[in-house]
Amino acid sequence: MLEQTDIDKLRDSAVKPCDLMIGDKFCDSQNGETLDVVSPINGSLLTTIAAGTKDDANQAISAARAAFEDRRWCGQTPAARKNVLLAWADLIEVEALELTVLGVRDNGTEISMAIKAEVGSAVNTIRYYAEALDKVYGQIAPTDDDVLGLVHHEPVGVIGAIVPWNFPLMIGAWKLAPALAMGNSVVLKPSETASLSLLRICQLALDAGLPEGVLNVVSGRGDIVGEAISLSMDVDVIAFTGSGTTGRCLLENSARSNMKRCYLELGGKSPNVVFEDVENLSEAAKTSAAGIFRNSGQVCVAASRLVVQQSIHDEFVEELAKHAAAMKVGNPLEITTQSGAINNSGQLKQDLKFVEIAQAEGANLYQGGRQILQDTGGYYMEPTIFTNVKSEDSLARNEVFGPVLAVSAFEDEADATTIANSTDFGLAAGIWTADLSRAHRMVRSLRAGVVHVNTYGGTDITVPLGGVKQSGNGHDKSMHAFDKYCDLKTAWIKL
Prior knowledge:
globular, Aldehyde Dehydrogenase, Chain A, domain 2, five-stranded parallel β-sheet, alpha/beta
């Protein structure tokens, strides 16, 4: 059970500067440069991380390639790989609280969420793929009697994993666990503004017995390290979560190099559609508020557009606003905090800029809209609600990635579908209705990779997460994630 006294013992602990992890060595970047790690809680300097160079990235890629080619990992039995991954999960679990506090100090997620969504999720994900790796079977083709056709699953080779700052452990594990379970080698590039906890669990992977060179970590700037990874002729797959702008760069770099496969989980502008027959309006409003304002809206599947039927519009918005106003925004290391800090000052400025744009375009600022708690030195913003948002408005079309909700009204089911599908994104959606037939119709008609019905959020590792349209391609989570990290090889044998 999470106790405030245990958190308080760790909240001011010194954090050592973090090195690169290449092979089995921890080292400075080749030019000795570092990046400051600033805590969003109070704007203080936590530590530094190595600012990797192009040469550092290429050295890590070479280490990963060597490890793959000599089969020190992929050549081990499934049982042996499973044992290493399970041992890794156990080591992470032992350090769960320390890792959670470290991550919260680094990225600002409220600790009540982070303990489950970060460390808890990472442990469960690694264990899931450890247990699943020996359940991936080949196939025998239905051929003539004089031929045997076999289909094998082979590891791809070297994976370049590029991970964002909002949930580094959770999203990092979504990529690392299935990639490693299939026998690949990995070069990981964590976010410039949230690397600390991810760097630590990668160190624990070596302690668990992962051979040197199989997992390498190069921290640093995306336009240097990320570009080097995506342009490398020796990286076979890119697995990325982040912005559409960066995703396009990765695709371009793939075309400029070896046409490596790029699996991209990009932005979202997810509609949360509430019909007048919603069974429990207050509960739906409370869940909807959490769906956009937890982690200060810094969630790729955040329910950032509320699409509510006109007949209950005013009542529902009033109820949601009441729940939003009651949420405690503040220091994410306090157990009672329900919405923590914005990850960095640049993101906070962007969130506030969207408030200005929405007002200029004629939306109604119903609640919030301001930076708060400036005296802490940290980055905090009120839960913000805009009504009268039109489908063509910037707030309805662009991902804010902050605690800003756009509310639109609809008349009937067809109108709701049109509004919900009116963006370039298609990552997630929500539906609230007591009509089972309508729920099924809406699931079919909404263009989204994940559709929540009479809830929002809470999916686990057993189901895939992936988007359509400009929300990306490929899937994290579930057995389907293995598809990104393996090749199909046919053996055609004349008998």
